[in-house]
Structures are given as structure tokens and as C-alpha cells.
Amino acid sequence: MTSGPASKLLAGPPLPADPVLLDVDGLDVRFGRGRREVHAVRGISLRVRRGECLAIVGESGSGKTATARALVGLAGPGARVTAARLDLDGQDLRRLGERQWRRTRGRRIGFVFQDALVSLDPLRRVGDEVAEPLLVHRRVTPRAAPGRVRELLAEVGVPDPDLRARQHPHQLSGGLRQRALIASAMAADPDLLIADEPTTALDVTIQAQVLDLLHAMRHRGMALLLISHDLAVVARLADRIAVMRDGEIVESGPTAEVLGAARHAYTRSLIAAVPARTPPPPRPPATGTPILTCAALVKGYAAPGGERIDAVQDVGLALRPGETLGVVGESGAGKSTLARLILGLAEPDAGEVRFAGRPWSGLPEPARRPRRRDLGVIHQDPLSSFDPRFTVERVIGEALGAIGTPARRRRPATVDLLEQVGLGAEHLGCRPLRLSGGQRQRVAIARALATRPRVLLCDEPVSALDVSVQARVLDLLTELRDRLGLAMLFITHDLAVVRQVCDRVLVMKDGRVVESGPVGTVFEAPAQPYTKALLAAIPRW
Amino acid sequence: MSAAARLGRGFGWLLLAVLLLAAVAPGLFTDLPATEPDLSSALRPPDAAHWFGTDELGRDVYSRVVHGAGYSLLVGGGAVLLAIAGATVIGLLAAFGGGPVDRAVVGGLDLLLALPGLLLSLLVITVTGAGTVNVLLAVALGSLPGFARVIRAQALVVRRSEYVEAARCLGVRRGAILWRHVVPNTLAPLLVLGTTGVGTCVVAGAALSFLGLGPQAPAPEWGTMVSDGRHLLDQAWWVAVFPGLAISLTVILVTVLGRDLERTFGAPAG
Amino acid sequence: GGAAAPSGSGDGPPRNGGSLVFAITSGTSCLNPQASPNSTTTATIGRAIVDSLVAQDADGKLHPWLARKWEVVDGGRGYLFSLRDDVKFHDGTPFDAAAVKANFDHIVRPETKSQYAASLFGGAYTGTEVVDQHTAKVTFSRPFAPFLQAASTANLGIQSPKALAEFGDKLCAGGEYTVGTGPFRAERHIKNQSVDLVRNPDYAWGPDLEGRRGPAHVDRLTFRFLPEETVRVGALTSGQAQVAVLPVTSVGRVSGNPDYEYHQRRQPGESDSLFLNTSRAPFDDEGVRTAFIRAVDLDPIIKGVYFGVYERAWSPLSPATLGYDPTLEGSWKHDPAESDRLLDAAGWTGRDAAGYRTKDGRRLTVEWPYLDQSAQANSVGEAIQADVKKVGIELVRRSIDTGTYWDLLHNGRYDIWQIGYVRAEPDVLSGFFLSTSLPKAGGQNAARVSDQQVDAWLREGAASTDEAARVKAYQQVQRWAVEKSVVLPLAVTATTVGASRSVRGLVFDADGRPVLTGVWLAR
Amino acid sequence: MIRRILGKLASAVAVLWGAATVSFLTLHLVPGDPANVLLGGAAATSTGLREQVIAEYGFDDPVLVQYLRYLGRLLTGDLGESYQQQLPVATVIGEQLGPTLELTASATVVAVLVATLTATLTAGRRRPGVRGLTSGLELFALSLPAFWLGTLLLAVFSFRLGLFPVAGDIGVSALVLPTLTLALPIAGILAQTMRDGMDAALAQPFAVTARARGLGELAVRARHALRHALLPAITLSGWFVGNLFGGAVMVESVFARPGLGRVTLDAINGKDIPVVTGVVLLSAVAFVVISALSDLLYRIIDPRLRTA
Ligand SMILES: Nc1ncnc2c1ncn2[C@@H]1O[C@H](COP(=O)(O)OP(=O)(O)OP(=O)(O)O)[C@@H](O)[C@H]1O
Ligand SMILES: Nc1ncnc2c1ncn2[C@@H]1O[C@H](COP(=O)(O)OP(=O)(O)OP(=O)(O)O)[C@@H](O)[C@H]1O
Ligand SMILES: [Mg+2]
Ligand SMILES: [Mg+2]
């Protein structure tokens, strides 16, 4: 395993001589009591030196956030935290009273929470939020606060800090919000910065910027505890990596060592899940008449201000049997709107969708209904695409019913479908809420296949999933495609995913197609600066 | 939930069951008549024979409170059921009738919401006259617009939900979608809304009775009993206090248990 | 009851000054005595502001007031009043014969929409003649003896003709729009809250009766409307009011308390009674009516519900009225066995599942609609309902609204109607029993009796100027009404007033209503 | 912006027009002859009076004509004349508006204060004692019908202890008990709503973030959570107005206070339809105004709702 050039550039110099700043031993976090007890963190040990960056990685629910919150004494109501040792710079955090904790938080440990988009009080100005630690810890006088806030915002690379400080969080993009949060966490100059999933909510391009920013922070001598479920993300930053699973640290060590020679099987599965490291060999281009064509589609929405947003502008595409077409673009590019137009859930303002050689858009719903069985769809968020009261059996049974399968034949057909996606009859009686994310997505796929469609439209089918689960679902999809000869339209914001499954790709920005072509061509020789930026932002090592 | 809370909850349900039982079969709790005057024993304070004392006509207040449960729960429960039934039809009509129908219904609801519930109820009584059934109708109309709005909003949410879209994409027919997905998912939150609504409606009904618009005498309706008994508060506090407590107890019970239901069944998609 | 000596007199000379708050039941919708219904509130407030031609003392005797003297002329068809010449209205207008004419003409004019005062003319008013500046002659189409008593009421009190003309339709608002010659001048009326009066220092023409001569002693008199009984009593006991109309529930507390003085006066007129509708089944059958009445055990009901404050009534006419027939007292007994016998005899022999009597498959049901009532009136109703149920009569009580009230009353769609009527004049009986006094014609003949003999008695009573003859005529009517079971007299209502010890000189008029001219406040 | 305001105005006018129509319909559904209502017992004392009244009020015209005439009068601001008092409805209502406004305003202030205090002090606290006690009290408060609470307060504080005057609208002390009667049940619900809102806000990442900055608990509540708790409370404004009105009817009746509640009851009991209509219209206006205000307040508190 080789380290990519980016990680060489970014990884800080190891400073073994630095004293230990954070020393944790036997940290245990439990929630609830009795039968409902959740043992979230099980006796883990951590050590962070001054100026060092330690990354904790692990899948969702492995206890990363619980660990981080325990470190600032905010594990939450109902949490019971114990530790054999919990020292910050020689001071025993376990013994702190509420007042001393207050002096520690913000001042000695800065904290950037998961959920950057909602971690700023939406009702207060950004400047006030950033200034809060300054004022609480009396770092500056109230008069001097605005000036300091501006400096801080400028430091984290917020353009036009004066304006931004006066705005409210909702007026800032996700990246700016995350920067403001980091500025706020750093405001009182803490020794340790804990960043819990600082990039999950962000577009790839912005994600790269934030990681760069955190890297720059480290050069000010601040220690960094970085938490993520994405190995590729932390690979660029961390000196050392600790891999968590089910509340325990299964493996830890210097970054290169863990990535290069993972000892634990779980670590290896995480590494394997990182997509696009080895693009599959290109498949022969599909021929034949397109089954789905869109011509010069336009769709606008009335925005609150009274103006119109052109969500989709002049988009054309053609999809042939057996082909997979990727549609990429950052949030708001118009991908979902395009999907809705194709599905006939919205009517285009101009342009036309043709399906199986016949008109599709502009028809009355009853005319489309009998043909819908040929167009399957997998939604971004499988859970909300299931009636919360339906069992798996009813969910799939409804689809079977829609193509006229008689009631008595539905159950065997359902089991059949479940088996195709790697589930079994034991899942029939489950309600979707009780299934894991991967299982839900499989049920969604099974439902889409129930009508034996010729075209499968996938709107962000994996973005809600964990990396490891994501990889399994993608494998399943490509396998099905190859087996059933489906044409797939694959919508995502994740270029790495596209690289793995698509034949051709369409890059969208602000409702327009900016670039399109075979995957290989677009990835190796992007013509547009926007595509280049997207590609550069793909985390890899 | 702690053991104490579980115990309290069990006790609450038990009390409600007792109350319901009293409403349908008051005879199980008392064999004293509720309406038969016995002037020789007027205004007796509470004692072993008359647990809640007697009123100015010598009627046993305990027996009257027990017999009154039926009226209050009939008005409270009946009004809620009626309001929810009406609100469901109206709410679904608005959510599925499309633009003009929706606008008309929403406009109508806005209008009704603009009139305080009591005023609406009073208007109904103005037209229909006093009486148990009319109070029920009045209270139901008073709470209908609120319910209808919730139902319409919920129906809209459900209608726009991804699972309804998913069903459409599968080619499921409109009627089937409405019946299979929309109606059940719209009505689910009503369980909670309904229970807490019973409390409000009991109070509203009692208020109308207090204003002299309730069931006809000598029906032992709690609001009327408080209303009549309050003049005697000096001499015979028990005549008004016990029915007053009965109202409070009922309202507290249904409210608490409604919230309990909310915790148990509310927001299943959460 | 009856007329007692004015309380609190005799301890030193009256002191002038101070203000008095009188907590009274309710503000009626119309405060103009000439237009409002027969109401204690209007009469009490009106009495303080307007004077009448004659004054009736607590014994029912008539005395000069704004009229120095009077003469019955034209065989009872005319009344010649010689008026005082020294009287001025509060607005400065002098009082004269033209004012009398203006008032009486105003009252009977349809636009005035008079709900009570106009009826005091018995429908026989033909006009008022200004004989000279200080002599007025009021004429009637028939001999009309009740007029003099009517002329003593505040409802026929004389208001400033200038105000009548000027304020027109505002008169109902009361307050400064009511301009009289009385001991107090109205200052303002805050609807649902209070009426403020101030002393009329020029008042020198009060009737020569104890506590009514004037001028008034207190500077300011405020009537507070407190319909809520407990609140009204609370106002008295907490010192926010010096005088309060007491609910029967509180009489015991106040009368036994040395800090207060309790006054009680039986109200004259028509006792609180139930009239049985003789014009439709089942009460068209005298036997059923009698059975109904005998089934009611009234003594404990009245005593219990009214806490012994109101007496049980035996006659439709109150004992406080001239012509009351005391022989009716104890004339019948509670006798359910007799009721059963009478009902069997009337053919109501079946019984249905609920235990009520039936005839030809129809249940013996009587309807008693009522307008919103006091808690006590309700209790009486419920007790009667329970009593008659014992003999198998279903009594349905139904609370109704004003619109329905008049509809039912006018069209006779009821079996029982409850009325009480305060007026110190036996001719009230004409309103109740004259065949022409049907509700639709503006009368109170709710029993809907039509009997030539009764009509004759009543006409005689109204026409005769001989008191003994009148008494005899009216007693015959009372006896007839009780014997024929057209009425079930319930209670003799009373004015019940509590006053703080410092209030002196409170007297009551013939109607049992408080007169506040002579009231003063001791230190 | 202008379009928004125009839209609001249009819907306000629609609500008022609807309210007017509802009242007019009520007038025509009411059983009994309006002339009887108007004349009381004097309906037939003198022939001609009835006919005169019918002609005067146009009761004999076709319903549509009456409706249009009624709307026409409304447009000129004429609410008609009270049947009972024969005064302009505007006067009747105007005279009584003051005491009701005074009562509802003070009750609003008290309810909001009490609710804010209890919500701020008890939100997020796990200690069962304090929280159980306050939510128990809240429950009790909201379970008390206004007439019953008022009667009890009167009996205890006025009759027994003599701390407050029993009645009237004179002075501040006379306002205490009615205000409490009206405010407490409202405060009960408001406190619960606010506490739920506050609980929700305190569980939000931004609240945890604020704590992680070293903010004390009270500061987190006051600076961050309180505003969030206000939002659901404002949503209750429509309910609030309705409750204030309904409560005022009861309170004014129990405490024998003058005010619109009494006027309404009298008018409804006496079938004084013009006054009822006036009250209906007034409450519709109040609702429209209050919802406009709460809309505004919403925007002030929540910047996300302001157009960029
Ligand atoms: N307040 C709580 N009460 C009960 N269980 C909790 C609570 N908070 C977390 N948990 C449980 O503790 C476990 C660890 O949660 P944690 O949030 O630390 O996971 P994570 O690794 O941060 O996951 P993610 O990547 O999704 O953020 C999970 O099983 C979670 O369900
Ligand atoms: N129903 C709607 N009403 C108004 N605007 C809409 C609507 N749906 C989408 N938009 C707007 O259209 C634009 C494109 O939205 P769309 O959902 O298609 O983006 P996307 O590429 O799917 O983004 P994401 O990756 O976040 O899902 C956005 O600016 C969005 O705000
Ligand atoms: Mg986490
Ligand atoms: Mg999308």
C-alpha cells in the first residue's frame, strides 16, 4: 500500500518528544439502565500529545461521538462515564466541579460537534456565536469582541468576515458554517481541538477546504482529535489513527502503519470500502436505441423571494439498455429535480421525456400508470420511502400487486426477491424501522426489482449509508445490472462512486450539464474547471 | 420509566377505567338516587351516609357526581369523536381536493379559528338552544377547526411523503394510495390529539353548563352542579367543591394519559 | 314582613354628606322606567331620580306628591290633578301640567316600546288635558280605578319633557338621560357596572312620609350591579357596599350578624306562581290540574329552598296587597292519594315502563319551559318535578331562549308558566285572569282562562272606587283561581336587604322597594 | 413584501367577511321572531308597534336583500343597533372594551411571565421532585375551568381572608384575582409548550456546542434555548386569543366585572343579534390582528423566516 502524494504533503511531522496532553485510560460510557442499557464505549485508552493529530475512525454507532463528548464532560443526560484515568495536561478531569468544567470547556478544549449545519444557534448572529467563548472566558472586553471575531473568521478563511459576522447561520453555506464553528471553537485558544465528523455534511469540494483548514490549525501547536467514519478523510491529516468498533479500539498506530498494514480484519474492510481506488475496467459502450431520452428539459420553481429558480435547464440525455449513466453535481445542482421529471412526478416546463420509444412526460397519470412497471426507482433515503406502518412483506407485496401478481403468489415472489438482494424470509415480518441501513436499502432495491423494470433510476442510493455498507450495496447493484441487463441512471454527488459503477457520466452545475462523456475520459481529462475541482476533492491517499 | 412512574401510570389508567365505568354504570358505585329530592336531609355535610354531603334538595352529592360522569364524558368524548370525524372529512377533502377546494376549506377553517371556541359554541347554542346534545354539538364545532387543520397538515405531509411517491412510481392507483397509505398515516397522530382533546372538551362543556346552557335539570351535570352550588359555598362548600374536583380529576387524567399515549405511539417514524 | 318603622331612626339628627354604595342585582337592558320591563332595579334607581304625581305609603295609602291634590271625575273615567308650582326638573325646566301630558303621551306612544309602564294605563288611556298650567286632567275610555296607584310608581314618574324630546332613543341608556325632579340627579351610567347619582340640593317636594321628605342626606349614591350572589354579599361584608340586595342563601349570615342590619319586606302584587294552561290537554281537565297541585308537597320545598326567608303562598295575590284573601291559607293539603284518585278518574290509568301514567298509549306529560332562572327557582322546579313523578306525571322542564319564550307564550304552547309580578295594586289580577289579557294581547293570562264571571269581578274591581267592593271582587277571583286549580301559588317573594350598621333612615315603599331619600350615614 | 402584505390583507378581509356572514346566518337561524325579541313582552300591547318594528328593521324583506343591506351597512362601519338597549352596537361594545382589554392584557403578561419562569427553571432538569411538582401544578392549573378557579379564589382570598376586593374594576387590587383566574390555566399550557420547546432546544447540537464553549447552564437557557422555546409558544397565539376571550366571559361572569364577556352573554341570552354580530366581528378582527402580530414576532425572533 502506498501513501498518496497528498498525504505526504499534509501529515504533520511527528513530534515524539512533546508531552502528553490528553491521557485517557479505561474510558467507559453507558447510556440508560437495565435492559435498555447501551454500553457505548468500553474501556478505551487514548493518548494525544501536544501538536499531534489523533484520528478516531469507525462505522456509525461505534462510540466515537460518545467518547468525544465524555472528554468534555458533556456525554449527555443519562450517560454514565467512568475512567481509570482522564487527565488533561496533568489535571484530573474526573474531579472537576461544574464551575471548573466551565473554565475548561472552550478555554482548554475546543469542540466542533458533528452536525455542523445545526451546531450554530440559528436564531443568533454568527458573530455572536463566535464571540461567545471569548466573552465567557473573558479573553477580550465586549467592545473588542467584534474585532477579534473578524480576525478569527479571517483566519479560518471566511471571506468578507464583517458581513458574515452580521449574518445568521442559515445565510451561510455549509462550508462557511463549519468554518465559523471552528473559529468559535478556537476563539479562546484551547490546547486541544476535538472535531467530530467535521466534514460529513459537506460537499466534497468544501470538505477538502475544511480539512486543509484543520491542518493549518495544527501548525499553531494545537493538538487535534479528529473523528470520522471515513478513512480516506483522516488519512490526509492524522499522525496516528485509532479504529473503533462497538465501543472498543480494535487497532491503533501511526497512520501509515494502520493504512499500509492493517492487522485487524475490520480495519481492512474499512480500507476496502473506500471506493475508486481501483477503477473497474471499462465495459464496451452500449449500443442500440435509447430506452430513455430527455430532450432540452427545463424546470423552474418559484423561490420564496418571488423570483424563479431554474432547477433544471436545458438538460438532455439518452440511456441505452445495459448502460449505466451517472449524473453528478453538488448539492442543489438539480439532480433530484431531473429524477422527478424522469419519473413523471413533476412535469417539465419545456422539453420532453420519452420512455421506451414513446412519449412519457406530459401524459395524464392513468396513461402512464401501466408503463410504470418498466421504470424502477431507488430513493436516496429508503426509510422514508416506506410507509412506516408496513412490514417488509407488505412493502414488496404492494409493488407486486401493482403489476397484478395475485395475492396468493406474492409471498413466494417476495421471498424470491429478498433472496436476490441477500435477505431472507426472516425479514418478511420486520418493519423498516427495525432494519439496518443496508438492509433497508436492499429492501428498497428488492421493491424496485419487483416490477421487473427495464430501467432503474437510483437517486443517491448510497449517500445515507456507511462506507462499508455503501460498498456492499454498490456491488449488489452492479451485479444485478450485469445479471438482468438493466439500464441504470445513477444520481449522486459522489464522483468516486460514479467512477466505480458508471459507463458514462453527466456533470451538472446550477441546473445545467457542464460536461459529459465516458467515465474514463471525464476522470482522466476533465475539460471544465468545475469538474476538475470536483475530482481534486475526492479524498484519497 | 421508573417504577414509581409506571405505578402512577397504572393507577391513572385504573382511575380512568373507574370513571368510564361510572359513566356507563353509575349503579355500581352508588345506590342512592341522583335526582330524587329528599328535603328532610338538605345540606348535610359529608358523613358516612353521604360521603360528599347533600345538596339543597337533600340529594346525595356523591351519587350526583357519580351519575354526572356520564354527562361529562359524553360531552367530552362525544364532542371529540364528532369533531375528529368531521375534521377528518374536511381535512382530507382539503388535502386532496386540490387548489380551489383546499383554499376554500382552509379559508373556512381560518374563519372558524378566528372565532374563539366558546363564542362558536355560544353561537351554536343560540341557534339550537340548550341541552346535552346541543352542548355536545357546540363543543364539537368549537374544537373542529383545530383538529381539521392538524389533519389537513398531516394529510399534506403524508401526500408529499416519499412513500406515497414511491407507491405512485410503482403504478399504484390513487384510490388505493389514499386508502392504504394516506388515511391510516394521517389518523395515527389523532389518537393523542383526541385524548388530550377530551379534557378540553370536558371543560368547555362544563363552562357552557355553568352558563346555564347545559343539560336540562335535574341532570347531575358537573358544570351545572358547580354553577348552582357556588352560591352555597359559604354554608355548604361540599355542594360545589366535589363536582369541581371531579372535573379537574377527569381533565388531569385524560391529559396525562393522552401524553402517555403520545410517548408510546407518537411519531412512530421518528 | 309588612310595614315596619324605618330603621335606624331616632338616634340623633341625620348627618349630611358621604357617599353610599348600593349593591344591586343586575343592570337591566333598559334603565328608563317608562320603557323597561317591570324590574326592581329600574324601579329602585328610578325612584331616586323621578317623582310621581302621588305617593303610596307602605300600607298602600295614597298621599300627595307632585300633585297637591286630585279628584276622580267623570264616574271614574277622569282624574283631575292639581300640581305643585314650586317644582323644577334637574335640567332647570319647570314642572307643570304640560310636563304631565308630555310624559303620559310619551309612554303610550308605540315608538317608546314601553314594556311595562304603558300597560299601567290598562289600555284605556285616552289622553291628558292641560286644564291650566298647574292642573292636568287624565282621561280614560272606561272607569279605571287602578290608575292612582299606577301614578304612584316610578314607571309613571314624571321626567323632564325637554329631556324626553331631546334624548329620544337614548333614554334606555339611563344615567344622565333620565332627568326627573327627584332627590337625586343621575350623573352617569356605566353599563353592567354602576349608576352614579348625586344629591339634588333643591329637593323640597317629597311626600310627607317618613324618610321621604327630602332633600337627601348623602352626597352621592352609587348603585353597583353585581349579579353574582356571592360577590354581592362579599361586597357588603368587605365594606365595598353599604347596602346590598341579599340572596336568600345569605340572609341567615347577615341577619344574625350585629354588624349589619337586615331588612325584609314582602313584595306585593302577584306571588311567584305556576299557571296551568287550561286551554290544552292535559290541563284542560280540572281534575288533572287539581291532581297536579295536590301532588306537590310545597311547604318543605319553599322552606328548604328559600331557607325559610320566603313564605309559602296560598293565593295568587301576595298578602302584602290590598284585597288579599287570607281565608285561602291552609285551604288545601298535600294529598297524593287524592291526586291518584283524580287521575284515575280522569282516565290516566295506564302506566308505562318509566312509571308514568298513560291514557290511550300517551304518557301524561306536562311541559314547563322557562327562561334562565335562579338556582333556587331551579331547585323548586326540580322538587316539584320529583313530587309529581310520584303520582305518575312527567314534568318536562326546558330552558329556552328569549325568542322561543315569546313564541311559546303567545301561542300557548306550554302547560306550565311561572310568573311573579310586583305591584301594590290588586288589579294585577286583571292581567292574569281577564279573558282579554292573553299574552298575545300583552297580558299575563298564562293560564288562558276565559270565564265571564271572573271577567265581571275583575271589571268591577277596576271600575269601583269603593275599597270594600273592590276587595270583595278581587277576593272572589282569588278563591275561584285556587278552587278551579288554574294556579299553583308558590312563594311570597320578599325584598331582602342587608345594610351596614352605619346606614340609617332606610325605608321601603309600597312595593317593598328601598327608598333612599332619607338615608344617611352615621359615623 | 408588498405582495405578501396585500395577500395578508386579502385573507384578513375574507375572514371578516366570513365572520359577518356567519353572524348574519346565525341571525336567521335563531328560532323565534326577531320582532318578539326586540319588543319583549310588549310585542302586541299596541297594534302597529310590531308592524312598525318589522318595517323599521326590514325583517320582512327577502333574506338576500337583508344580507346585502347588512353588508352595506358594515362597509360604512355601521354595526347596527342593539335590540335590547336600542343603542348603536359600536357604543355598546366600545363602552365595555376597556375593562376586557385591561383584564386580558394583564392576564397575558402574567401568563407569559409565569410560563417563561417555570419553563426556564424546569426545562431539561431531570430531578423528579421539582419537575414533577411544577408539571403537576401546571396540569392542575390547566384542568381548572375558569369559573371554578375563580369561584375558589374568591372564596378563599376575598371572602375568607379579605385580601382582595370581591368585585368591580376599580383599582389594581380588584384586578388581581380575575387576572390570576384567567392567566393560570393559560400559563399551565404555555409553560408546558415552552418547556417542551426548551427541552428540544437544549437537546440540539447548538446547545451542546454552547456548553462546550464553557457557557453556564442558565446562560445556555437564557441566551439560546429561551428564544427557541418562544417559537412554539407564539404558534399558540390563535389558541391563546380564543382562550382569553372564552376565559374573559367566565371571569367577568364570576367576578361580576363589566366587559365584553358580560355583553356577549347578555346578548346571547337575550338574542340581541346585532350585538352578537358585533362581538363576532370584533373577535375576528382581534384574531386577524393578533395573528399578524405573531407573524411579525415570529419573523423578529426567527431570522430564517425573513426574506434575504
Ligand atoms: N443519549 C443516548 N442514549 C442512549 N444511547 C445512546 C445515546 N447516545 C448514543 N447512544 C448509543 O451509543 C452508541 C454510540 O453512539 P455514538 O454517537 O458515539 O456513535 P458514533 O460512532 O459517533 O456514530 P456516528 O458515526 O453515527 O456519529 C450508539 O449505539 C448509540 O445508539
Ligand atoms: N419543490 C421545490 N420548490 C422550490 N424549489 C425547489 C423544489 N425542489 C427543488 N428546488 C430547488 O431546485 C434546485 C435543485 O434542487 P435538487 O433537489 O434538484 O438538487 P440536487 O442536485 O438533488 O441536490 P442534493 O444533492 O442536495 O439532493 C435547488 O436550488 C432547490 O432548492
Ligand atoms: Mg458520531
Ligand atoms: Mg437530491
Low-confidence stretches of chain B: none
The level-1 CATH class of chain B: Mainly Alpha
User: Distance N terminus to C terminus of chain A?
Assistant: 10 Å
- Portion in helices of chain A: 25-40%
Largest sheet of chain B: none
Structural class of chain A: alpha/beta
CATH architecture level-2 label of chain B: Orthogonal Bundle
* Total domain modules of chain B: 1
Q: What CATH architecture label of the domain at 292-381 and 454-536 in chain A applies?
A: 3-Layer(aba) Sandwich
Q: How far is the N terminus from the C terminus of chain B?
A: 19 Å
In CATH's first tier, which class of the domain at 292-381 and 454-536 in chain A applies? Alpha Beta
**Main sheet: strands, sense, barrel of chain A:** 6 strands, mixed
The unique ligands bound to this protein are:
adenosine-5'-triphosphate, magnesium ion
Largest interface here, residues on each chain?
Answer: C-D, 47 and 53 residues
The low-pLDDT segments of chain A are 1-15
Order of helices and strands of chain B: HHHHHHHHHH
Which features does this protein show?
heterotetramer, A: 541 residues, alpha/beta, Rossmann fold, six-stranded mixed β-sheet, globular, B: 270 residues, mainly alpha, MetI-like fold, 10 helices, binds adenosine-5'-triphosphate, binds magnesium ion, BPD_transp_1_N (chain D)
Descriptive account of the structure:
Chain A: This is Dipeptide ABC transporter ATP-binding protein. The complex is a heterotetramer of chains A (541), B (270), C (523) and D (308). Helix content of chain A is 35%, strand content 24%. By secondary structure, chain A is an alpha/beta fold. Chain A has a domain at 292-381 and 454-536: Rossmann fold (3-Layer(aba) Sandwich). In chain A, strands 7-8-9-3-10-11 form a 6-stranded mixed sheet, sandwiched between helices. A 6-stranded mixed sheet of chain A has the order 17-18-19-14-20-21, sandwiched between helices. In chain A, strands 1, 2, 4, 5 and 6 form a 5-stranded antiparallel sheet that branches. The longest helix of chain A has 18 residues, at 467-484. With 270 residues, chain B is mainly α. The mean pLDDT of chain B is 85. In chain D, helix 5 (89-122) crosses helix 8 (173-202). By secondary structure, chain D is an all-alpha fold. Chains in contact: A-B, A-D, B-C, B-D, C-D. Chains C and D meet through helix 5 and helix 11 of C and helix 2, helix 3, helix 5, helix 7 and helix 12 of D. The structure holds adenosine-5'-triphosphate (2 copies) and magnesium ion (2 copies). Residues 31-32, 38, 40, 58, 60-66, 76, 78, 114, 229 of chain A line the site of one adenosine-5'-triphosphate. The site of one magnesium ion has 5 residues of chain A, from helix 2.
